[in-house]
Amino acid sequence: MKLLGNKRLLILMLGFIMLIALMGLTYGRSYMTWPEKFLKDTVSFTQGLLYKPAGYIAGFFQDIKQLRTLYEENTVLRQTLTKYARDTTRLNDLEQQNKRLQDALGFTERQKQMNQYTFRIAEVTEFNQQNKMVTINLGEKDGIRPNMAVMSVEGLIGRVVRVSAFYADVQLLTGMQTVIDSDDKLALESKAISVTVKGHENESYGFIEYYNPESQTLVMTKIEAKDPIQPGDTIITSGKGLVFPRGIEVGKVLEKRQGDFGITFVASIQPFASFNHLREVFVVQLPELK
Fold first, then answer.
1. In what helix (H) or strand (E) does residue 64 lie, and over which residues does it extend?
2. Coiled-coil region(s) at which residues (predicted)?
């Protein structure tokens, strides 16, 4: 063991002496000996062989890191874009709702100045295309009763036909498809809409009896020959029937023609209200029905 320890010490000392000698020989020289050149070339070639694969491996892991960063950034961008689209849609819907409510507020203020009716705003919760009905979120608990008139900002749309505690069904004007027997005055006043010409309330009178789906117009009947009604006139409810109060705008006269028997006249009325995109409507409450 002692001999082995002495050999290690001797080898270490010889290596140290050779290093000092080599440093002394090469210090200050601008040239290398052939052993030095051989050693230099060998080391450089070996380093080159090791460096390239190491560079490829390092670049591979760097690319993976960059791909992961891009994936995370794209995920954040997609989430941001989705949130932006959702917020934009919600903002547009709120702006449209705000405009409708502003129109509704202006409408109710104008109506208050014209008459003593109360207009209860309601939201349409269901549309029955087949039966031409809508369901609104007001019912008996809100004081809603059958046969109350219902309108939009544009004009009359129908009347309440069925009421539950929290909801009510409204029959639209487009569901009026039965011609009423003119001899049945009670049925005419209860089922038809008694109307007149705005500005000629004391001279004009007739009934909206049914809706013509082909021309998409309401049909006004029982018009007397001396009635001043003309195309372009505005038709409003006369208040002489049993259901609809006075002064609600219905539509505009498109044409006036003789009836089937030539005794009275018939007029085609284009409704002011749109029946396809109802969102908020108004139930008209008369003072004595509050």
1. helix 34-114
2. 84-111
